[in-house]
Design goal:
Length: about 280
């Protein structure tokens, strides 16, 4: 299942790929407010693809702790013009829609998205059926609690086993709804209802997810775990993000979701060169 078809674009995940983050929101934790205009959003997407991104993940609702909820129409207003604009430019990358709203998943795929990236793992009513009918790949992410309050006091019996069990259950729910296993990517959800120690444990034992025999997406770019660990503000977390990405690559991650595409591509090239050396 290394080759996935994203609405007509086939990506070979036997070698690691980069997903560029494009938040068209005023309040995302790192790039909020930077790409609110259509022109800036499209220019940023084009730049990330030039730097090597195979996916552009477009989000219109911040999931950082404490962020305000956004209704369907406002989220659609933010993301659909960007998707349509990139589709018209025939961008050589897969457009991903970062949303938990089934109706927006449908609208986004109709506009040109080839991947649904859902932090809620298709748990919203009708989400499973909608994605099954869309017939595009989906990324299922683990989170504990709701984004607004998820970091207040996350609790697990064993974070690695609990995350694996949850993802396995969601893969089973997808199968029952007609979503093929070859159309599923999984994401352990770093920072989504997890303490620093829990995040580090997940990263250390990421190979445990390999038992599910699915591509693994890892998103740790600039996250607060590095602020806690290193006492650095968000704009000074690149080195930490690269180090964690390299650890994820070593554990078999297929997709690294990042803000800093060029630097992450360099890390992947070094990783791949070492892996392929005699």
């Amino acid at each position: 299942m290394t080759h996935l078809n994203f609405a007509g674009t086939t990506i070979n995940l036997s070698t690691p790929k980069v997903m560029g983050i494009l938040n068209v929101t005023p309040d995302s934790f790192s790039d909020g407010g930077q790409y609110l205009s259509l022109e800036k959003a499209i220019a940023q997407a084009e730049s990330m693809v030039e730097q090597g991104a195979s996916f552009i993940d477009i989000g219109g609702e911040s999931t950082r702790p404490g962020a305000d909820a956004v209704d369907l129409e406002e989220e659609s207003r933010r993301v659909l013009p960007v998707i349509e604009g990139l589709k018209q430019r025939d961008l050589p990358a897969v457009i991903s829609i970062d949303t938990s709203k089934p109706e927006l998943m449908k609208r986004a795929v109709e506009a040109g998205a080839g991947l649904v990236n859902d932090v809620n793992a298709l748990q919203a009513p009708t989400a499973l059926d909608v994605v099954a009918n869309l017939k595009v790949p989906v990324c299922l992410m683990h989170k504990q609690g709701e984004p607004r309050t998820m970091q207040q006091d996350p609790q697990y019996n064993n974070v690695v086993e609990d995350v694996c069990q949850f993802l396995q259950e969601r893969v089973g729910a997808c199968a029952k709804s007609g979503i093929k296993k070859q159309n599923i990517i999984i994401d352990p959800g770093f920072g989504f209802g997890k303490t620093l120690d829990q995040n580090l444990s997940l990263l250390k034992h990421l190979l445990r997810l390999a038992a599910l025999d699915l591509p693994v997406l890892v998103g740790v770019s600039r996250k607060s775990m590095f602020g806690t660990l290193l006492d650095r503000p968000v704009e000074e977390r690149l080195s930490a993000s690269i180090a964690a990405a390299y650890a994820a690559l070593s554990a078999g991650a297929s997709i690294i979701r990042v803000h800093d595409v060029e630097q992450t591509m360099d890390a992947i090239k070094v990783f791949s060169a070492i892996a392929n050396a005699d």
